[in-house]
TrEMBL record:
GO CC term (a single one): membrane
Ranges where the Major facilitator superfamily (MFS) profile domain occurs: 51-501
GO MF annotations in UniProt: symporter activity
Membrane spanning stretches: 127-144, 156-177, 183-203, 215-233, 239-259, 331-348, 360-381, 393-411, 417-439, 451-471, 477-496
Lineage, top ranks: Eukaryota, Viridiplantae, Streptophyta, Embryophyta, Tracheophyta
Protein name: H(+)/Pi cotransporter
Membrane topology: Multi-pass membrane protein
Main location: membrane
Compartmental location: Membrane
UniProt record similarity statement: Belongs to the major facilitator superfamily. Phosphate:H(+) symporter (TC 2.A.1.9) family.
Amino acid sequence: MENGEMNAGSDLRAGLLSGSAHSPPAQVKRIGIDDMLRLHTGELGRWQLRHFVLTCAAWALEAFHTMVMIFADREPAWQCKLAGGCPPDNCGIPAASWEWVEGSAASTVSEWGLICGQRYKVGLSQSAFFAGCMVGAGVFGHLSDSFLGRKGSLTIVCILNAISGVVTSLSPTYWFYTGFRFLNGFGTGGVGLCAFVLATEPIGPSKRGVAGMSTFYFFSGGIAILAGVAYLFPTWRTLYIVSSLPSIVFVLLIIPFISESPRWYLIRRQTAKAMDIMHTIARCNGREIPPGITLKLDDEDDEENSKECSQVAESGSIIDVLRSRRTRLRLILMVGINFLCAIVYYGLTLNVVNLKTNLYLNVTLNSISEMPAFIITAVLLDRLGRKPLGVGTMMLSGVSCSIGFFISGTGVLMKTIRMICGVIGIFGMAAMYNLLFIYTTELFPTVVRNAALGCVTQATQLGAILAPLVVVAGQSLPFAVFGGCGIAGALLTYYLPETMNKPLYDTMTGLEDGEGKFVI
């Protein structure tokens, strides 16, 4: 009897075990990338730090190609060849009565005689570079969101910069030089935005702000390095070659170790590749993604939706940004803010060549002086939020420049006060210029992020084109313009939404659903 009961119990357990062996698998849990980073891979671990540093090295390359004009287009010192001496201005004396101290090969100004009535050509070639940046930012902003991806676009712009930089050094005439500078700007316009998005997208939401603010250390460091390189290679043709070669080194030695953005893979419906990167991040950070966890986009709520959309790559363009009222208003505001910020930032920094002191030392000190602004902004970013910090830094710059406008007089004290106003102005605007990249990244979803960033970068380059025209207007008027731009930018920033600790949306639908309760 007991044996019969035992056999029956055994048969019952066997049946249960057999049934469990054929039971359906556990439900796959699908979460967004931000949740994956926060819960399973780590928001800012060893993998993200390595990837961030390698990618942001491209910002130093952008500094090389942008700021090389300070040294290549400088007006060298000249000396009189007449025994009786010459007037202080060489415009009114015969060319045979004076000569360049460093020779005609020192800069484009000395080689092609861009002085006196031809001085406007210096600004023209610099404006051509920024015009190229404006076009390139829009083109590569779109391409990096579409089939090329972030990494592919970054590779192409670095190759283009290396080639155009070397070709610029071979310019036979001024007009060839100006055309090659436009081409160089076309590539440079895509470097910063591609590198920024690629570096920050794999970082978790609570760490993304500080990481994004840290990218500009590489730009400022690149300027300081360029000053040393320019001191060692004082002729402009050699300087263009030397400053362009690092782009090839970056493509050959660094880009192979940089990963494509998992967010880009996800919006292209390549979930398997996105998950491979997430598993790599987790392993490198000493974490592990539990079985049954996979990724989804913001607008995917269930398994059926995933199956319906799995074969369709998510794509977007600036048209999609303009079609939505929420993103349209954000884009208009960011275009205006970036435009005003660029006028003040580049306007206050382009006076370096007019200080009549050691050019190499001044450029180095300027680049280093911006770093405290980055540090303070990074510290306050996740305490005060993006919006209050943006309003405060723009207002600080605008008010200080306005005070500089009302300071009159030619004495040492008045000049010192105006100089201090300018330093405070560039301090505040450097902080805002840094903040704008991370702010723009968080305001727009992944599918149109680079397109939006490219659009606002175009506005920045337009402001950079106009900045030299403001500088040549005189000593006090530029301060009035810079002050007005700073205050106006602060007012525009006030109407932006706060993005601190908000999710980084992937799709337009996800943004609309997630922030439907907000006006913009």
